[in-house]
Every structure is written in C-alpha cells, then in structure tokens.
Amino acid sequence: MKICRFDDNRLGLVGNDGVRDVSSVLARLPQAGYPFPKHDALIAHLAELRVEIEKAAKAAKAVPVEKVKLLSPVANPGKLIAAPVNYKKHLEEALADKGIHHGNLIGEIHKVGMFLKATSALVGPGEGVKLVHTDRRNDHEVELAVVVGKRAKDVKAAQALEHVAGYCIGLDMTIRGPEERSMRKSPDGYAVLGPWLATRDEVPDPGGLSVKISVNGQVKQDAHTSDLILSVAELIEWGSAFYTLHPGDVIFTGTPQGVGPVKPGDTMLAEIERIGSMRVAVS
Fold first, then answer.
1. 172/97 Cα distance (integer angstroms)
2. Is 226 helix (H, G, I), strand (E, B) or coil?
3. Cβ contacts of residue 35 below 8 Å, gap of 6+?
4. pTM metric for this prediction
5. What does the pLDDT look like over 191-202, one tens digit per residue?
6. What are the chain's domains?
7. Is the Cβ–Cβ distance between 256 and 227 less than 8 Å?
8. C-alpha atoms less than 13 angstroms from C-alpha of 38 in its C-beta half-sphere
9. Using one digit for the tens of pLDDT, what is the confidence trace for 4-29?
10. In terms of Cα–Cα distance, which of 18, 22, 30, 21 is closest to 51?
11. How far apart are CA 54 and CA 244, in angstroms?
12. Residue 183: which residues within 8 A CB-CB, separation 6 or more?
C-alpha cells in the first residue's frame, strides 16, 4: 500500500491509475487533547486502518498524481534522525572535497553517530525547496527514509524491521559551511519526504534498492542500498539505544557518493526502487 498526503491535507491511496481520496478514514483516528501525543496519529494507527482505507478507495475517483500537490506523507514526526556518511564512497568523496567538508572533521558513522534535523524543515515534493544562504554551496543528498511504525527502545537489529511502518524517498538538503550539521541541514524545506509512504510489505528488503537523483536531467547520484555501511536494521538498533523511537519518527539512512550543488531554477528528480520517484523544484 502506498499512502500520500496531498493538496489541503487530504489523505490518498496511490495506485497505478492515480490517487484516490480516502480522507474520510481520518475521522476514525482517536481524538487527542493537550498535551498532545509525541507521535504521528495516522502512522500509529495505520495498520488497523488499512482495511478501511482500501474500502474507501474503491468508492473514490482516481486523480492523476501529477494533478495533485504532494505533501510529506508524515504530518507530525517527533524526530527526524539522520545518518551521516553512511556509504563508503561518500565518505571518500567527503574527505577529498573541501567544498563538502569545509575544514570540518569527517569521521566514520561508527565514531560520529547520528544527528537530528529540525522537524520544521519537513516538506513534501510538491512544496519544493527554497534555498537560503545562496552565497554558499547548497547540495542535494538523496536517501532512503525509514518511517517508524511502533514504539522502539533498545531494539536489536534482528527485530528492528518489525518496528517499521514503511519507506519514503528523502532529500537531506545541505548548506556547506563550518556550522554543526543539524544547523546547516535544518532550514525550512531542507528535509523533503515523499512522494508517498510505501508500507513495509511493499519493500521486503530495504538493503536491495537502487537510489538515484538527477538534476535538470543529468544523473548525479546513482547507488544501491546494499552499499550502506550500517543497514536499516542496524540504524534502528543504534538509534533506539539513544532515543525512544515513536510512530512517525523518520530516519534518513545516509546519502551515497555524487552529492553536488543546486541553484534556484533547478529541478531534481529523485528515484528509489519499489517506492517511486518525486520531482522537486528548487527556488
């Protein structure tokens, strides 16, 4: 199942013929009052709503995907967790290119750990990316993004994928410079998630996916998740050893080699096998 959010916060089921509006199902979510929960309510209840979503889709008209504005499939993540330099070849290019490391210490992921991006950076592909600090290099970084489906704390890798709701394409947009990663990667719009959430059954092996991004039709990054230094399961194990992971939390698993700058007017096309593709405008 592929679930999207679109237009004015509508919920859609994505099929070969387009998007079918299933927003009526949202009325079945538990009502919440202050203090609000630390998780995304839809993601937390997605499994139990699946039958209702499929039923609502049968009564809805399909609209072509290109006719809707795609938002982030996760509305309220508690955390955006990101894995730096989690591909060996990207580590090598980061060490070799001063434009990437800007004099910063670049270390293996085992040594430097993961980092957090501000949730206010989150957008969907239809919203595009508006660059800030355009006097500096702003780079694209395409990544497999993992959406947590149920609470996870001190989870072992062998059970980690049981805690996954599904997968998305992620863009970890980055300003190059001397500041800490979290600051340079957290402006509004610098965490693109989409085009939809492909549930876990759609992606039986997250370590077996091709990952690609083109800018203005020219391929820039083209790799495979089998080259991840730490696998999806290992990232969940490690992350849950430090944080409690809640439904809707997102883990950006790291970007492969080929990162490069974008400028206003560019168009990025990001693709991940078994998930789909998303076109993102840069302004």
1. 18
2. helix
3. none
4. 0.94
5. 999 999 999 999
6. 2-69 (no CATH), 80-281 (3.90.850.10)
7. yes
8. 9
9. 999 999 999 999 999 999 999 999 99
10. 22
11. 31
12. none
